[in-house]
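In the laboratory, one determines a bound structure by crystallizing the protein with its ligand and collecting diffraction data. In a computational setting the workflow is compressed into a single prediction: the sequence and the ligand go in, and a structural description comes out. We illustrate the idea with pyridoxal-5'-phosphate.
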Amino acid sequence: MTPRVASYLESNPATPCLVLDLERVGENYDRLHAALPAARIFYAVKANPAAPILRLLVERGSCFDAASLPEIEACLEAGARAADISYGNTVKKPAAIARAHALGVPLFAFDSDEELEKLARHAPGAKVYCRVAVANEGADWPLSNKFGTPPAQARALMLKARALGLVAHGLSFHVGSQQTCASAYENAISTVAALFTDLKSAGLELKMLNLGGGFPVRYERDVPEAGVYGTRIMAAMVENFGNDLPDMLIEPGRAMVGDAGVVVSEAVLVCKRIPEDERPWVYLDIGRFGGLAETEGEAIRYRVSAEASGPLEPTVLAGPTCDGVDVMYEKTPCLLPRGLKSGDRVLIHDTGAYVTSYASQNFNGFAPLAEHYI
Ligand SMILES: *Cc1c(COP(=O)(O)O)cnc(C)c1O
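The predicted complex, in structure-token form:
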């Protein structure tokens, strides 16, 4: 938690809420830029689409990776130029493609034949890039089961893109979100570099490599610094491309905003569930449906602290709704003070990314998560 957030918490905002330090977002932008100065940064808007964040990043000179037309419009409203937006979702409605094209968005992603046909039809002449499937090992929140196409197929699709009158601009990959191994980028770079070479010998020279997101946040476990990723990515780029480097893009989402935010919640009920279960259960006023969706499978392990005293003991953490899956940490409980009682504040740290945008609309009558950008 940053000192600015700590000071804001003294005003006792109503819980649950997210308090996010914009100054930290600016620092994260600068840190990512310094780690990989050769790459243009396209902030992945879906991580947190709040207008104050978008406006700050516009001012910093960031570009944007948008997943939908409303995200594109939010970027434009925040002052971004259409030319600095990439429509990075590989699943788009024709009308959304046409509208983005008309607004001047220059860059579109695809990873299938049908999507390519749609782009040719509704964004004629646009720059397109194919998302290549790469290993997601090392990622706490993998994406590879849903996105990306194998290299051989990407090759055929890029040649087809050119034949359809599109600008076959480049390739992308995503090594999975919260990727804790820098080697995932090295392996992915060598895979796509082979494809660059292959396509060049087929007469198609690609100009751009989009390295996606995945840069991690320090939750419970330590992760390598951004600089480590930058150094190793750059070394892999030079090793694979020599002096013939393509334009590089990165699309950090989590690493841009995750550690800038804290969810402030309140314990609503503290109890022992059944005689066989020694552990206290703490039910908060926020849960999986209030925005903590990434606790599914206990995949993302947020640091949790409570304003209470006593020795730390394993504690099950659950949400307030009448839904059985609304339990955050049970298989591996959190360590919380024994003296924790209902009414005490519980802080869930580093929740600036993928929380507010996941909060449900009034499930069980609970309002979407309140947000304070300071
Ligand atoms: C979600 C997403 C990102 C952001 O990933 P992070 O792991 O949050 O950095 C980047 N690019 C694309 C295409 C995405 O879908």
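The longest helix spans residues 183-201. Keep in mind that any predicted model is a hypothesis to be tested, not a measurement.
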